[in-house]
Amino acid sequence: MLLKDKSAIVTGAASGIGRAVAIAYAREGARVIVSDIAEEGGQETVRLVQRATPGAQVAFVRADASKPADHEALVQAAVDRFGALHVACNNAGIGGELNFVGDLSVAGWQQVIDVNLSGVFYAMRAQIPRMLEAGGGTIVNMASILAQVGTKGAAGYVAAKHGIVGLTQAAALEYAAQGIRVNAVGPGYIDTPLLESIPPKTRAGLVALHPIGRLGRSEEVADLVAWLSSAQASFVAGAYYPVDGGYLAS
Question: What whole-number distance in Å separates Cα of residue 206 and Cα of residue 79?
Fold first, then answer.
């Protein structure tokens, strides 16, 4: 069990990758706080964690990733319930407004930056002091393949995900010597609820971008996150790991 006796937070855990990470963390022995703004989905994740790992210690705490105070309360809830904080996966994010830069609304830009980039900063700002109190920890920030390349019509998302990698590297340099490892993961297009509504032709186009010939599965991302969060990755800090079916190599 890679995370036995560790206490963890997963943001954006009401569905998709975040849900899979929560399940993987519990499977590996962690005590898990599931967080999201979607309470119904978050509670369903708790039930799925308990079903997958009977006896798992898991609870839901509602939090808005764009609000610093919510992150502070979330971390406090983890410490109050489990005694410490050792692991965090900052996964919460949105797709946001799709428009070319000249047509992108200021509100649309700000919303994506607030959740996808500032939300990761707010999370780490709350998490790191408590991890230092615990003697160290690990943080995995959810970036994207679009943290390395661009795409049309999603400037806010691309900018935020590029920013996550830079933020991850800066934090890793600042805290590696104090026992906190910070890394980022870059999923390709993953078969999550976010893609359920797209037309078949568009979906086929997305599949074609991945040399492996299919979309990714949330569990494939979660397995990488669990490894990065564990002592098996003890010499990994400030890294960006794509899990993208060859997208970035093509």
Answer: 41
Residue 240 designated active-site: no
- Domain-located, residue 87: yes
CA–CA separation, 24 vs 30, rounded Å?
9
Per residue in 159-172, pLDDT (tens digit) is 999 999 999 999 99
* C-beta of residue 129 within 8 angstroms of C-beta of residue 173: no
> What CATH number has the domain bearing residue 159?
3.40.50.720
Out of 25, 122, 157, 247, pick the active-site residue.
157
The two structure tokens encoding residue 85: 């904080």
Asked if 90 contacts 122 with a C-beta cutoff of 8 angstroms, the reply is no
Asked whether residue 63 is assigned to any structural domain, the reply reads: yes
Distance (Å, whole) CA 32 – CA 66: 21
Judged against a pLDDT cut of 90, whether residue 193 lies above it is answered with: no
